[in-house]
Automatic annotation (TrEMBL):
It comes from Aspergillus sclerotialis. Residues 422-440 have a biased composition (Basic residues). This is WSC domain-containing protein. It comes from the Eukaryota. Residues 3-184 form the DUF1996 domain. Residues 312-355, 421-440 are annotated as: Disordered. Signal peptide: none annotated. Residues 312-345 have a biased composition (Low complexity). PANTHER family: DUF1996 DOMAIN-CONTAINING PROTEIN, PTHR43662.
Length: 440
């Protein structure tokens, strides 16, 4: 899974005149998750030729997504929304050392009355140049122009074969999309639109906002919902959820899913010798991989030696206590019950453990190792070559877990009591803002 670089940027661009903030409860979509084709010329013709079908809302919607090859070492940078499809992995590996920037532009022309529609699109429209221009008839109310940007570290996979696919099963990029749900405090955004006109486009130059320092931002921890906390999105044969990859050009609705074939029934026949050898060869290669991962874990300091030592001490103390108090001589034959006044021996202190929970940031390292198995024409293994362990990418995750353990000893009060005993046997169980723009 490619790593996101720097989070998502949301640009609030002030394109047009008499711009209005989004009304309370306003919602809209940009793009179409089921789209798998692009029926317009590639690359885009000059904007002066965007009329007729080229200027239709259907065309403008597809021109509102972009895939920008990032290379900070060249003087010329690609323009926003200039490519509307996912570049091939070969192109990305060769030309985009700083990753791939995904862009989605939202409609900025509104019908002035509906805060949503059944398809979340019909109440809004694009101006005739997508990012700027003239709003169509019936959608004259001009909203803030909203642009999302996200950079993905595709270059980390340059030594690997394959292709990039979105989690919705889209390898083309034509199905890239974005959602927007208004959540501003009433009046704040409109006040910013009316007063924050500094051409720098920096949110720091807008006094309406009270900005947090980076240190304060780091203190904010998001508790991952239980439904997502344990979701496995890394070790998969295919996409998470079994979503099928659909190349297009057909519209990818309804969603299709892959099926996992049932495991074959055990065969009573004898396993061939060469298959045993193959199994042993693969097992040896995997053992080497596990050893490499264990070594990597040790180097990263992921072995909680101190906690293990505390737990071991507690366990040893408890075991010793049990051994000293539960050792009983072999019982004699049953005899008449006798009443004896005895003193309870000094009890062993009972360990009491308390736990303190808090946010912990985990470093997730994705590694791979190539295992090459050479076989003869009959499929019998000849040799196994195991490559070096290689880091593919790293990621971090913040979870809530035990961060410290306190152990105290409680000694029960010694008491004298009368005991009736019966003896018997018993068991124990970037800078592309147009006009006036602000990054928020």
């Amino acid at each position: 899974m490619a790593q996101e670089e720097g989070g998502m940027l949301a640009y609030y661009l002030l394109n047009g005149e008499n711009i209005k903030a989004f009304p309370p409860g306003f919602r809209m979509l940009a793009g179409d998750t089921f789209q798998r084709n692009f029926t317009w010329p590639i690359p885009d013709p000059p904007q002066s030729l965007w009329f007729g079908a080229q200027g239709s809302q259907a065309a403008l919607r597809q021109k509102a997504i972009g895939f920008n090859c990032m290379n900070y070492n060249v003087p010329y940078q690609e323009g926003t929304l200039k490519r509307h499809f996912m570049p091939s992995k070969e192109f990305l590996d060769e030309n985009c050392p700083d990753g791939l920037r995904l862009e989605v532009m939202f409609p900025s022309c509104w019908n002035g009355k509906d805060i949503d529609s059944d398809d979340h699109k019909s109440h809004v429209a694009y101006p005739d140049l997508v990012m700027d221009g003239t709003c169509p008839e019936g959608f004259e109310t001009r909203l803030v122009s909203l642009l999302y940007e996200t950079i993905w570290n595709t270059y980390a996979f340059r030594h690997m074969s394959g292709k990039f696919v979105f989690a919705n099963g889209d390898p083309t990029g034509f199905g890239y999309h974005g959602d927007f749900m208004e959540g501003w405090e009433p009046g704040v955004l409109q006040k910013a639109v009316d007063t924050c006109t500094n051409p720098s486009g920096e949110v720091q130059d807008c006094p309406i906002f009270h900005l947090q320092s980076q240190d304060d931002q780091r203190k904010c921890h998001f508790e991952v919902p239980d439904d997502l906390k344990d979701e496995n999105v890394h070790s998969h044969q295919g996409l998470p959820g079994g979503v099928m990859i659909e190349e297009g050009p057909a519209y990818a609705f309804p969603i299709k899913y892959t099926t996992t074939p049932a495991a074959p029934s055990p065969s009573p026949t004898q396993t061939p010798d060469w298959l045993d050898s193959l199994s042993a060869s693969l097992s040896a290669g995997l053992d080497n991989l596990h050893t490499g991962i264990d070594n990597l874990n040790t180097q990263l300091g992921l072995v909680a030696a101190e906690t293990a030592e505390i737990a071991s001490t507690s366990s040893t103390s408890s075991t010793s206590s049990t051994s000293s108090t539960s050792s009983t001589p072999s019982p004699s034959p049953t005899s008449a019950p006798t009443t004896t006044s005895i003193s309870t021996p000094t009890p062993t202190p009972t360990p009491v453990t308390s736990y303190v929970e808090g946010p912990v940031t985990k470093l997730i390292v994705h590694v791979e190792r190539e295992i090459i198995l050479e076989c003869d024409e009959q499929g019998k293994p000849l040799s196994t070559v195991t490559g070096d362990l290689r880091t593919v990418s790293t990621d971090t995750a913040t979870i809530t877990q035990t961060v410290s353990t306190d152990i105290s000893m409680e000694t029960p009060e010694i008491q004298q009591r009368e005991v009736t005993r019966v003896h018997k046997r018993h068991g124990h169980g970037h800078g592309h803002l147009h006009r006036r723009g602000h990054k928020i």
